[in-house]
Amino acid sequence: MLIFDKINYTVSHNDSTLKLQPLSFRLLETLASSPNDIISVETLIETVWGSVTVSPDTLKQRIFILRKAIEESDLSGIAYSHAWRSPNNIHADHVITSMPIAQ
Predict the structure, then answer these.
(1) Against a cut of 0.85, is the pTM above it?
(2) Is there a smaller number of Cβ atoms within 10 Å at the N or the C end of the chain?
C-alpha cells in the first residue's frame, strides 16, 4: 500500500519512504489514484501544473524525473506501468504503481 504525505511530499511503502519534488509528487499521486485508467495528457497537465501552460514534452520530462526517483529509491515491490492518451495517440510508459493507496 502506498501512503502519500501531502505536507512533506513523501510516498511510503512498507518501511521505505521517498521524498519527491512537489510536481513529481502530484504526478505520482494522480496516476496512482487511477491505476487502471488511461489518463489524457491534458488531464495530467491540468492536475499537476494547474493553470500554468506546459507542453506534453514537459510532462514527459517530469515522468522521466519521477521514474528515476522511484528506480533510485528503496521502494521495492512497486510494479509500475501506465499509459496516457493524447488526442491522436495512446502512449505506453512505465511510470506508476498499481498498488492500493492508503486513504
Answers:
(1) no
(2) C
For 33, residues 6+ apart whose C-beta sits below 8 A from its C-beta are 101
**How far apart are the C-alpha atoms of 69 and 23, rounded to whole Å?**
12
How would you label 57-89 residue by residue, b for 16+ Cβ within 10 Å and e otherwise? eebeebbeebbebbeebebeebebebebbeeee
* Whether domain 3-97 has CATH 3.30.450.40: no
CA-based torsion, 56, 57, 58, 62: positive or negative: positive
Mean local confidence (pLDDT), 67-93: 63
Q: Are 18 and 73 in contact (CB under 8 A)?
A: yes
Task: Please state, in angstroms and rounded to a whole number, the distance separating the CA atoms of residues 28 and 101.
Answer: 11
Cα–Cα distances in angstroms (integers) from residue 43 to residues 10, 18, 33, 46, 76, in the given order: 22, 25, 13, 5, 28
Average pLDDT of every residue of the chain: 78
Helix axes 22-32, 41-49, angle to 10 degrees: 130
